[in-house]
Amino acid sequence: MSALPLPALHASHGGSWLRDGNAATRTVSKGEAMMAAADTPLLILNAPLLATRLGYPDLSGLDLLELFAFVHPARFVVPTPKGLAHALDLTEPDGEPDVPRLLQEAAGRLLETCESPDWQEREGAWTSLQSLVRMRWPWATLLGTRIAKPQRAERWLFSRLPEWEETADQPQPRQVELSEADVLQQLQTLTGAKAEQREGQRAYAAQSAAAFSPRKASGQPNVLLAQAGTGIGKTLGYLAPASLWSALSGGTVWVSTYTKALQRQLRQESRRAWPERRPDGSQPVVVRKGRENYLCLLNLEDALQGGFAGRAAILAQLVARWAAYTRDGDMIGGDLPGWLGTLFRQRGITALTDRRGECVYAGCPHYRKCFIERASRASAQADLVIGNHALVMVNAARGRDHAARPTRIVFDEGHHVFDAADSTFAAALSGSETIELRRWVIGPEKASRGRRRGLSARLADIVSYDEAGAKAIAAARAAAEALPGDGWMQRINEGAPSGPLEDLLASVRATVYARDESGGQEAGYGLETEAAGLDGTFIEVSQAAREALADLRQPLMRLGMRLEALLEDPPDWLDGQGRARIEGARHSLSWRIDLLSAWEALLERLGGPADPEYVDWLAVDRSEAREFDIGIHRHWLDPMKPFAKVVLEPAHGVVMTSATLRDGEDWGKAVARSGVEHIGVTPRLSTHSSPFDYAKQAEVLIVTDVPRGDIPALAAAYARLIEASHGGALGLFTAIRRLRAVHGRIADRLARTGLPLYAQHVDPIDTGTLVDIFRDDPAASLLGTDALRDGVDVPGDSLRLVVMEQVPWPRPTILHRARRLAGGGGSYDDGIIRARLAQAFGRLIRSRDDRGHFVVLSAAFPSRLLSAFPEGTPVLRLSLEEALHRVATNASEEAYRPDHAARP
Predict the structure, then answer these.
(1) Segments of 278-353 assigned E as strands
(2) Predicted local confidence at residue 185, as pLDDT
(3) CA distances from 481 to 74, 443, 499, 518, 741 (A)
(4) Residue 364's pLDDT is what?
(5) Fewest CB atoms within 10 A around its CB: which of 7, 153, 503, 892?
(6) Mean pLDDT in residue range 466-471
(7) Dist CA 295 CA 291 (whole Å)
(8) Is 474 helix (H, G, I), strand (E, B) or coil?
(9) Kind of pairing, strands 757-759 and 729-732?
(10) How confident is the model at residue 704 (pLDDT cuts 50, 70, 90)?
């Protein structure tokens, strides 16, 4: 293999290094690096991250990640020098000055791959490259001489993708009882005959089996609430009875998670119980997500045919390369590299999914090859469907999918079911929501490259002969003119709203600012106020808006009835594909009609007495002091009430499980937050303690001498703790502003000692990729917020220290205040905080060999919260100096002394 003799640049918080084509590397200043990058295309790795390090936002060059995505689509690589070296079987760089050498070698290896007869992803590459040449993609010239023109024309992507096939509906599952002996035998089969038998796991599996027993009464599912400490092995614990029940009954089990990380883990674990494919080629295990996660082939076709321009058009070509090799078309957390979208400035990834509910179903030319439809049909035939909480709830509430109503459900990460229900069953009448509805009805109002079409265009051929349907569409279009249009936020800011809904949003904004008591101190946060005590003018404006919404809902309802009549008495020309289109249109209409009804109910309440079931408020949403939305919000005071009616009542068996399901020894709150009380079900309760020896494996250190609000002292504490631990630290913050301030003060200092630091909301890298980078390098540390407090699984040396900047108090929002009042005041807050602490502590010890410290930088840490930590865990209140000594001593005892210079 020969290295590509082009100049290569690497930059980090520790410095910048430039290597010329003659294999000479030198240290350069940021200014020299920027001048070199501006003069000639350089070999680089992760241009957005490099641009952030150099402070040069216009940086461009020959990005190795883009080349990797072209040569090896749908293949995983950690986007770091070390990760690239491992993926290409190259020697790791010997320190950061050696990274440019690696970039030259990696470029050479990838280009040589394109000339190899063993290149597995060759098909489609030459055709894609011709388009990339016209787009002046930097790599195109170098690839042009390496990829030979095929002797036969390559198939178009959309002709290469396989079609899904219709299958018969599944019969209802047989009613079976699982014996404890059979469940334990299945568990032993899954864990392996030679595996150590864990009594906690065996007891957990046996008790989980009860949820799969036949239901005794309609609307009364078998419910198990199972607290299973970290290390119990709960995944195989519930997969044992689930796989056994599916095999005996012929039914489908849904396992629902909150995080994509657990979905990936479950997919791996499920291979112990099921093969990748059945003999007939069908999938026994299917991963399901919401529509917005999957590639929309119609959007991709539009992007490839001119819908995208500039860098976004290059992204579309790389996504098309991936689409030909992807396992399931999942763009968010699937086999599309999470870093690909961040390499391009525009939000091209989301534009290639169906986030607006515009799917035309059977009217799409790619309907029979659609990834979403394929997953939907596969899940109807599957033994196990791995979904998420939101999908289970949305499908239960308004699902159109074939497998929309699961009857046996395991809610893993069960402590998040309440939050997922809170989001699912809420209503928000906001500018962003209403403008999307307007576009769904009317279509694009200006010249647009996209494929967006209004309601009349999507249904033109179906209702062209139906006069009543055509009139309903025309009436809906006319009524939708009352909704906010393009530029609505600017008009409101200028005091010139247009139409009844913009008038309402302007009144909301004025009321929120009139009642604001923050004094402008929290400019980075949104503002809100209760939807109470509103004056007469506001009520008049809200009722005018309600009438406008009713004027839109009525023709949509008439259109729905016309479509229903078409299905009941179909014309001769209506074939199966046409019926599928109408079914899809009815589903979309029903969703919007329900949405409008919820908005009308919300506005009607503003002028009357408060409904004790709901919490309503007005809000102005802001980010970095910039307003981006205005609206009225409604949440259930207890979202488990609709959850119980929609999800639990139709089910036959439900398991809710988590390591942090209950608060201490109290099951009361866990039972209340499960929703079972709303349908009169008494759940089984099961507790299984972690097998880890926390007294030996972990310590909780409460540091008492870092002043609250002192950013320099906070930053210094973080830096010294990370240095004492030699990296391997996860820093958790309750405010993005403090995270950024700390990162800005310590990143360069740590980099100079060979300790890379990454951060959410700072580095232009998605959260999943940040965790991949952190997991891959034991010397790295990662700063983040709530998303990293739960669902991050980093066993081993890569995570040895968790640092929380302060006690994670709940934000005092209007919704929180209402629930706090209903839930017992201070005890409600304490329960939330203990759960957050327990979740954060759970990141630290993931296996029997893990060791580490959990540090809270809070002098006023209340003793009543200490029950959040596992029994037996040592808790010490001490100074920062004492904490540093204990952390450093632990690192010394573990003999963890990484060669920092070898870890770029």
Answers:
(1) 285-287
(2) 95
(3) 43, 11, 8, 36, 45
(4) 83
(5) 153
(6) 85
(7) 9
(8) helix
(9) unpaired
(10) very high
End-to-end Cα distance, the chain: 23
Helix (H) or strand (E) holding 28: strand 25-28
Q: Is the pLDDT of residue 885 over 90?
A: yes
Confidence category of residue 424, pLDDT binned at 50, 70, 90: very high
DSSP string, 784-816: E-GGGTSS----STT--EEEESS--PPP--HHH
CA atoms within 13 A on the CB side of 174: 10
Q: What is the pLDDT of residues 314-373, one digit of tens each?
A: 999 999 999 999 999 999 888 899 999 999 865 788 889 987 767 777 778 898 999 999
CA angle (23, 29, 35) in 5-degree steps: 80
- CB-CB contact of 386 with 334 (8 Å): no
In this structure, are residues 793 and 261 in contact, taking their beta carbons and an 8 Å threshold? yes
In angstroms, the CA 53 to CA 45 distance is 12
Tokens 């930097």 sit at which residue? 138
Neighbouring C-beta atoms of residue 26, cutoff 10 Å: 12
As a whole number of angstroms, the distance between CA 416 and CA 608 comes to 33
CA distance 484 to 503: 9
Nearest to 321 by CA among 163, 131, 109, 139: 131
DSSP-based three-state secondary structure for 18: strand
Q: Which amino acid is at 404?
A: A
For the cut 90, the answer to whether the pLDDT of residue 902 exceeds it is no
Judged by DSSP in three states, 133 sits in helix
Number of separate helices (H) and strands (E) present in the chain? 34, 23
Q: What are phi and psi of 653, to 5 degrees?
A: -150, 135
Of 589, 638, 584, 588, residue with least CA distance to 613: 638
Place of tokens 């029903």: 590
Phi and psi torsions of 176, nearest 5°: -130, 155
- Antiparallel, parallel or unpaired: β 8-12 and 15-19: antiparallel
* Cα distances (Å, whole numbers) of residue 709 to 151, 587, 712, 805: 68, 52, 9, 10
Contact of 527 with 623, CB cutoff 8 Å: no
